[in-house]
Description:
The chain is of the alpha/beta class. The chain is built from eight helices and six strands, in the order βαααβααβββαβαα. It has helices at 6-9, 23-34, 52-62, 77-85, 94-110, 140-164, 171-182, 196-210, and strands at 2-4, 70-74, 114-118, 129-131, 136-138, 167-169. A four-stranded parallel β-sheet has the order 1-2-3-6, with helices on both faces. Strands 4-5 form a two-stranded antiparallel ribbon. α3 (52-62) packs parallel to α5, α4 (77-85) packs antiparallel against α6 and α5 (94-110) packs parallel to α6. The longest helix has 25 residues, at 140-164.
Amino acid sequence: MFTGDSITDCQRLESEDGLGFGYPLRVAGEWGLRHPDRPVTWLNTGIGGNKVMDLEARWQTDVLDARPDIVSILVGVNDMGWHTLDPKGYVIPVKEFEAGYDCLLAPLAEAGTKLILIEPFLLSIHGVVEAGAGVVRIGAEERKEWRTDLDPKIQVVRGLARKYGARLLAADGMFAELAATTGPEYWAADGVHPTPAGHAALAAAWLRLVA
């Protein structure tokens, strides 16, 4: 099961198989090509805009009740930008982010579910982009503020991966390395949502962890 925010959701409700059009679909397709003798039921419960607290609210119904063998989680970018994009938002403290994320993982670990954690990422694109349904303009200053907020949350994800013995996909570092030769916009035009190449990079890295 893949779960998280819009990067995972990727219009899953509009897709025929419910996997969306991003990295979960690419993972499922590539796995099927490589391992026709190892069938897998793939599920996607990502919802655009979700933060850790939103996952907590639906965790039992959307994740635990399905009793998945493996859960892959990508969340955190909305925990970073909520106070910028939503008038009702606030800066989510690192401790609150950590406590909430831990609550997601604990029951899965207790059930023996294998965990894959994808760290949230932010690419240092250039210029100004519109976000929050086009009502907020995000430029260099906002991205600098977001980076300051995101870095300790990335460390939280890494720490939780160690705590629970989860496999970690270090996506922030991966994209920084990839962007060094191509420019960041090639992988995520707005710095957050991957392009087709960005989703392909995530899928390839995911498969390297488990295949």
